[in-house]
Design a protein that fits this description.
Layout: E1 13-15, H1 17-29, E2 36-42, E3 45-52, H2 67-79, E4 83-90, H3 100-104, E5 112-116, E6 126-132, E7 135-139, E8 141-143
Parallel strand pairs: 1-3, 1-8, 4-5
Antiparallel strand pairs: 2-3, 2-4, 5-6, 6-7
This protein binds zinc ion.
Zinc ion binds at residues 89, 91, 99, 102, 115.
C-alpha cells in the first residue's frame, strides 16, 4: 500500500455505557483465557458486542478468531444495519496494552483494538488502540 493512501483516523472513540459494561463482563467470564470478538455500532458509536470463539493454540496467552466466524459475524451485524468499528480481546494477566504479537497481527488498520483487563485493580480496565505500521497509539474512549 502506498503511504499516501493511509488515512489517519486518530479520534476519540464513542461507546455506550452498557457496551462498556458488557465488555468488562466478557473479560471476567473466563479468567484463564483471553476472550475476543468484534464491536459494531451506528454513526461511529459502538453499541454492540459480538463475542467470538478464541481458537488460538494457547488461548491463555493469545487470541485468534476463525476467519469463517469473522465473516459470519460481519454478515450478522451488517444485516442489522450496524457498521464494523472494532476488535476486542482481553489480557487476563498483565497490562492491557498491545503485546508484540497483537501489533504484529493487527490486520485492521482502520478499526480500534480494545484490550480489556478483568483485574479489579487495573487503572483502566478498558483501553483502545489504533495499530498500524507496527505502531500502536492509545485512543481516547468517550462514554455516551
Ligand atoms: Zn493481546
Amino acid at each position: 500500500m502506498l503511504t499516501s493512501e493511509y488515512r489517519v483516523k486518530i479520534r476519540p472513540l464513542y461507546i455506550t455505557q452498557d457496551t462498556l459494561a458488557l465488555l468488562s463482563g466478557e473479560a471476567r467470564r473466563e479468567l484463564n483465557q483471553e476472550c475476543c470478538g468484534l464491536l459494531a455500532g451506528r454513526d461511529g458509536v459502538i453499541t454492540h458486542v459480538f463475542p467470538a470463539d478464541n481458537v488460538a493454540a494457547d488461548p491463555s496467552k493469545n487470541y485468534e478468531m476463525a476467519p469463517k466466524e469473522i465473516v459470519r459475524l460481519m454478515r450478522e451485524f451488517r444485516a442489522a444495519g450496524l457498521t464494523f468499528l472494532g476488535i476486542y480481546h482481553s489480557h487476563p494477566n498483565g497490562e492491557n496494552a498491545p503485546s508484540a504479537r497483537d501489533i504484529e497481527r493487527a490486520y485492521y488498520s482502520e478499526e480500534a483494538y480494545f484490550i480489556i483487563s478483568p483485574q479489579s485493580d487495573a487503572p483502566k480496565p478498558v483501553r483502545a488502540f489504533s495499530i498500524r505500521d507496527g505502531l500502536s497509539t492509545e485512543l481516547e474512549i468517550q462514554i455516551v
